[in-house]
C-alpha cells in the first residue's frame, strides 16, 4: 500500500483519528453529530486556523512580473551599455537601447501574465463547495470556509474538501488516485481501526482532501484543513522546492558572460594599443566603446522573447498553456519523460475487455463508450445467456443510467459503471430493470470481497453475487453451461483457473458473477444468499491506455527520448500497461517502491538508466527518481495530474500537468498545462521546443556573424591606423534594425524534416556546439574583410570624404549580412533547403533594404547617421563585394 503515514497534531499531541471511535472523535473535536457546529463557533475557528486553502508559491504578478523580465543577464548587459552611452553623451544610442529593452520586457510580461490568468480561470472552474451541518441545518458553503469539527455530507461525484473521519457510510467508496496513485475506489467504513502507524491506503475510515467519491453516500467530521491535510503535507514539499534555471536561460547567461569578457578584452586592448601609439586617450576610449557596442547583439533578447512567444501561441492552438516562456525551449532538450500511469498514459476509466461465459471468451470492443460490440456468441441461445449475464451484472451494483437533454450517461462506482457500459453496448434495454424488483442488498466489504442482491425477476427469486473470483469459486458447487445447471467438478474448475491466469498475465482486473435460485425473498440472510452458488462467468476489465499514448511514445523513441512510467499501482499492472505501450524494452527493469527504499542514492543513480517502470511509489520516491535522472545528466519532463505528482513536477526540469483532471496543486507546480489531458501533446511540445531552439541557433549564428564582421572592420582599422569605418550609432542601427527583422524571420522558419529523428542535445551542450562557433567566426571574418576592403577602396581612391567611405562600409556590411542570412537557414549547403522558402525572411530582407534608403538619401537621417548619398556605381561595388561570403561558404557544407 501507499507509504505516507499521516498523524495529526492537536494541542501539541500526535493523534491518529482512525484509531478512535466516532463518538471519541466528535467529542475530541468539540462538535455534535446531530447539529454540527454553531455559526459562531465556525466563525471563531475560521479566524483561528485560517481558510481551508493550500499555501502556494505565489507567482509574481503585475509590476513584480514586469520587473522580473529585467533579471535576464543579456538585458542587464544592455542596461549597462545604456548608462555608458548616456554618460558619453550618445543620447540617440541610449534611447534606442532603452526602447529595445522595454519592448523585450513588455512582450515577456504580457505572455507570462496571460498564462497566469489562464491558470487562475482553470482554478475558478474547479472551485468546490461543501455540504456542512451548521446550527442543525444542512447548508452549502465554499470549501475554503470549512473548519475543523464541521460535519460534512458526501455523495457520489463529490470532491472531498478536507481530511475527514467517516461517521456513517452507506456503500461509500472513494477513489484516492490523486493522492496514492491507486485507481480502484476504496470502500469506506466508520468503525475504529486499532493499529498504529497505518498507511494512508489502509485508513479505510478516513477520507482525504482532493479524493473523489465514486459511489454511495456518507457523513464525515473534519479533522484537518488546508496545509494540515495530507494534501497540504505534499504541497509543502512544492513550496520548499527551489526554482531552477532552464537550459536556455543558462546558455544565454553563458553567452552574455562571453560577450562581456570579449567586450572588456577588446576595449582594454584598443585603449592600451592607442596610448602606446601616442593617440589621444579619450579618442581611444571612444573607439573601445564602439567595439564594445559592436560585440553585443542588442536585439538578441527581444528576438528570443518574440520567438518564444510565437512558440507559446502555437502551443495554445495545440491545447497547452506555457506558464514560463523559456520552458518551451527546455522541452526540446528533454531526454527523459517521467509519466504517471493513471489518467496520463491510461484513461483512468475501468473498461470491460473480456467476458468468460459458457466455457467461451467473448471480446468486448469500443472502449469506454456506448459504441462497440461484444463478439463470440455462436448461436441465439448463447447470445441470450450473454444478455442475461450482463443484465444481472448491472443489477448487482450501484451504477445508474441517467438521461439528460437527450444524452445518456452512467454514474456510480467505476467497476459497476464498466459492467453497465458493456451491457449498453449490446442494448440499453438490457440494463433497464423492468419486471425486476431489488429486495435486499448486502454491500461490498473489503473483508468479504463480494456483494450481493436478492431480486424478484418475473416471480422467480434469485440472489446475484459479484466479487473476487477466488472467494466466489470457493462458495460455488455448480456451474451453468448451455442453459443447464451442472456440478462444478475439477475439470471445470481447472478451466476457470486457466482463464483467470491468462487474464492476470494481461493485468486484467477480474470479477466473478454467480447466482442462486431462492424459494422466496423475505428475510434472506447474507450467508443464505452467498453460499451454494451457481457460477455463471467472469468479467475482465482494465484501465486502458490512451489511444494516442502508444503513438506518442513511439515518436519519443525515434527522438531518442526515454519514457519512464512512475505509478502507485501494482507492479504487474504497471508492467502489462508498459508492455502494451512499448515503454518496457526486452531487458528493461521494473522495480517497486520497497525495492527503491533498499537502494542508496548512488545505487539508484547507477541503475536508474536501466529502469523503465517504478511501481508502488510515494511522492518522495518520485522526487528521488527525478533527482537521480538529473544527476546522470538528463533533462527530465514529468507529467502528472494528482497531488502526489506535484513535488516531482516542481523539481523536474519541465513539469507537465493535466488541465481537465489535474488538481490545482499539480497545475501550480507545473510549467506546462495540457488543456486536453492528451499525452501526445507533450510530444508535440517537445517537437516545438526543438524547432524553437534550432531557430534560435539560426538567428544567433546570423547575429553574431554580423557582430564579428563589425568587430573585425573596427579592429582592422585601428591596427592599420585608419579612421574608424563605423560609428556607434551606425552599429546600433545594424544590430537593432537591419539585423533585427531578418533574425526575427529566421525565428519563424519552418522546422526541418528530420527534427524528431535526432537524439536530444546534451544538457551541457554550449550555444556554439555542433560547429556553430566555426560558422560564426568564418562567416564573420569574411563579412568583416569585404566591408573593410570596401572602406579602403572608397577612402583611398579619391574619396570625397570620410563620411563617404563610412557610408560605403556601412552599406557593404548591411548588404553582406542580408545576403548571408539565406545561408543561415540550413546547417549544410544553402541549397539543401529552398533558399527562398521562408516568405517572412524575404519580406524582412526587403524591408531592411528599404530602411537603408532613407538612411542614405534623406537629409534628416543623413545628419543622424553621418551618411552621404551613393551612386549606382557605388552600389554595384557594394553588391559584388557583399556576395563574396555567401559565394564562398553558401555552396559548401562547412
Write the layout of secondary structure elements.
Elements lengths: L7 E3 L2 E3 L6 H7 L10 H11 L12 H7 L4 H15 L3 H35 L3 E6 L2 E6 L8 E5 L7 E13 L1 H4 L5 E2 L18 E2 L4 E13 L5 H11 L6 H30 L4 H15 L4 H18 L2 E3 L4 H7 L2 E5 H5 L5 E7 L2 E5 L9 E2 L4 H16 L4 E5 L2 E5 L2 H13 L9 E10 L4 E8 L2 E8 L1 H6 L1 E6 L2 E4 L2 H16 L3 E10 L7 H4 L3 E10 L4 H12 L3 E5 L4 H10 L8 E4 H5 L3 H7 L3 E5 L3 H13 L4 E5 L5 H6 L2 E5 L5 H6 L2 E3 L4 H42 L7 H11 L1 H8 L24 H25 L5 H19 L18 H19 L1 H7 L6 H18 L5
Helix pairs in contact: 3-5, 4-5, 5-10, 5-26, 8-9, 8-25, 9-25, 9-26, 10-25, 10-27, 11-25, 13-14, 18-25, 21-22, 25-27, 25-28, 27-30, 28-29, 28-32, 29-30, 29-32, 30-31
Helix content: 40-55%
Could you give the count of β-strands?
A: 29
What gross morphology would you assign?
A: elongated
Rounded to an integer, what's the Rg over CA atoms? 35 Å
Determine the strand fraction and express it as a percent band.
15-25%
Give the overall pLDDT as a whole number: 83
- Catalogue the unreliable spans: 1-5
What do you see in this structure?
This protein is of the alpha+beta class and 894 residues long. The chain folds into 3 domains: 272 residues, Calcium-transporting ATPase, transmembrane domain; 165 residues, Rossmann fold (3-Layer(aba) Sandwich), CATH 3.40.50; 192 residues, Calcium-transporting ATPase, cytoplasmic domain N. Helices cover 48% and strands 19% of the residues. The strands form 5 sheets. Strands 12, 13, 14, 17, 18, 19, 20, 21, 22 and 23 form a 10-stranded mixed sheet that branches. An 8-stranded mixed sheet has the order 10-29-28-27-11-24-26-25, with helices on both faces. Helix 30 crosses helix 31. The two termini are 58 Å apart. The N terminus is likely disordered.
